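Case study 2.
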Amino acid sequence: MFKFIAFVDRDKNRNVTNTKSVQGSDPLNESARGKLQSRRSKINDEICRELKMRAGAENLYRAASNRKMKETVALELQFVNSNLQLLKEELSELNSSVDIYQNDSSSVTVPMIPLGLKETNDVHFAAPFKDYIIDHYSEDPERFRSAINDLDDLRQSARTPSRDEAGIDLLLEYYNQLYFVEKRLFPSNKSTSSIYFHWYDSLTGVPSSQRTVGFEKGSILFNIGSLYTQMGCRQDRSTLEGVEAAIGNFQKAAGAFYYLQDRFSHAPSMDMQPQTLIMLVQLMMSQAQECTYEKQLLHGLDSSVKGYLDIAQESAQIARMYRETHKMMTCSPLQDYVPFSWVSMVLVKEEHFSALSHYYTALALIENRDSDFDVLEKIFTNFYVDAEMNTVPSDVPQNTEERRTLGKSHMREALLLHEDAMRVHNLCKQLRKIDTCQEVLKQAHDRSLLKFESLESEDDFTEDKSVLSLKPFTNHLLQIIQPDLAKYKVEDFFHDLGPIAIFSARHQWSSPRVIQLTKNDNQGFGFSVRGDAPVIIAIVEPASRAEDCGMKVGDFLVGVNDHDTKWCKHEQIVKLIRSSGNQLKLRLITPLNKDYLKPKLSSSTLNGEPTQTSMVTPTGSTTSGRGPKTRSKLSEWMFKKRDSGKSRSRSKSESDTSNRIIR
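Prediction:
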């Protein structure tokens, strides 16, 4: 029915700074949607409180040995369960309030189904992050007070995003910021993390909690999809601009849910289970396809035979998509989870668009001109399908009377389906409150009834034929638009911890140690450095001042005198050391789980063939090449004592090829 646009995720581009933090909407804003979301939040809190009370009562019931105590606790449990049921019913009714998200214009359009945002509790990052920065990075946590506060503010704003593109940008900014936070401050062993992320189910309000950042990212991504559904519903679809915006929003909502289903697993809440997300993708694409039908009507309906039959098959396509959505909603495990009003709305739309497919087919037959017979014959050979969606050959009506008889049968089928749609609509309490939906159904029914009555005559005793369903087809194939996360660049709040390729929660290193080096004017410090951000100790001379002070080959140089050098380039380090004179204070760490000096050798080198010299630097980039110009990038800057004439001659020769000696 639809195809996918490939998702592009370039983690290496995420550390580009070009965004400014945007704020969420005012949570005290008394708009209709704001009141609804506020009430949903309060009900979620009440449900959470009742669940805790029930858990406590159940534990007390199991532990109690006194019969009277057991009876008292059992009575309390009945009361708590009754309250829970009432709260869930109230939340279900709020989730069924699709009309509050619709456009306020006076145009009469069929309402769309939106999703409310997932609610969450406050998370306090300060204490656990400061402890982790001290323990893992050995840094002063007060340096990162501002970064932690910025993260707190960003998360708080993401709880109440505005219903527009600025709100989407805000959620995506927080989502991408979580990439850096997870890499830096959440170790792979989640049991060591003391931060719990609490989120409530979007439809039932049942709380869930996990210590993984993946749950937080998945919930934010779910809210991105939910926000797109609300933006799609609020568009004025009586205008071409509005209906095009609605199509795009529903496609993006489907893309967010599909990406969530494809990339995240083992979610603790039902709204993020694969079956639910697949159903939401199908629902959003069905609504987007419905908007394409409305767009065609805005352009003007082609009254030719081909025009009528094209719009009839388009209607059949929409009906089929809603039929598949309804099937997903009514199958286990979603049959007791999806709101009844959603199921009813989808069924109403399935019947409504099936009726429209027969209505437009009837118009094509009744208003057919003789000159259109060839077109009719060509289309009818592949126009009907059976219950299994297999194409059924059909006879083409040969004259005006046969076309009128077949057209009348299609109009009668349209009338019956319109009546079914109105019956299903009237059976649902929530749908009866939506005046625009009832008005659209009534108008379509009255139009078909009027046309059917015009086809009947007193002396017509021809029995109406039963007609098959139309073959679904669309000339407007829609695509799922997945979020391009790389498009939204963010600044790493914890940039000062160092390059994330080295300084992350995944890597281990020794505690920083400070060494003091002194030398005479005719001496060197006895070590060389290589690489960039941070530089590595490449060589330590035996019996040198550097070796005596505990410097090791492979150490990272993270501080020179009073300068933090984790982000410093090779040339900057050399300049700082040269400017220190005979006194030098260095801050070093030793990586524990990786050798950053060991080069990666290609297969051609192992086979003895000449190849480019290559080395993977600490920042993850690879430098390679042949010749003096390229080799100079790999040069080791030497800080060692001055030797005899023979040694100086050898050093000069070496400097021509790889090393530069600082005297």
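The chain has 19 helices and 17 strands.
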